[in-house]
């Protein structure tokens, strides 16, 4: 129930970050593009949709192993710590392998990988992210602010953090998971959502989940 509440509250934060992302892609796509040798950009070859996504600069799906290794490095978790279903089965290798872009010809009889994400991919990503962020938060809460590895910019068990502390924590998570600094709009969305969380741990998990489910962590 604790993680379910965090998941629902994080939707508020995630929608704020999503609006920032949409505006960024909108601005990038609004600039005119002209084909070489064409004055008005009406060259038919320039408007043709290529069969190969890489030819038109489309995003490439970050499949299960790259997704897993990025979370392990960013949150400083081992493979076994990342996500275990009923404390027995690895979430990525056993439970969500197919929808995260993998295949298992021996146990599942699946010889080919899916070409693109399915509607269940978002569910699997959400499940893995919530488990990983919660695990890291619990480990850092037990270690205390002095021994925390990731959530170290405010005490997870103390009084409400300041806006500056929240921004510092969010910035580190952006750097760890997305390898970039957040924009001013993204930091504002995170600070604005702080009132939706009842605890510092919940806020930390919420920020981690929102950053981890960012489109930049799912596609490259």
How would you characterize the overall build of this protein?
- Strands 1-2 form a two-stranded antiparallel sheet.
- The protein is built from 10 helices and 2 strands, in the order ααααββαααααα.
- It has one domain (2-15, 58-218).
- The model is unreliable at 24-41 and 44-50 (pLDDT under 50).
- With 220 residues, it is mostly helical.
- It is globular, with a radius of gyration of 20 Å.
- The protein has helices at 2-29, 44-47, 64-75, 79-82, 91-95, 119-147, 163-178, 184-192, 200-212, 215-218; strands at residues 84-85, 89-90.
Summarize the structure.
With 220 residues, the chain is mainly alpha-helical. Helix content is 56%, strand content 2%. The chain has one domain.
Annotation keywords:
two-stranded antiparallel sheet; mainly alpha; globular; 220 residues; 10 helices; single chain; 56% helix
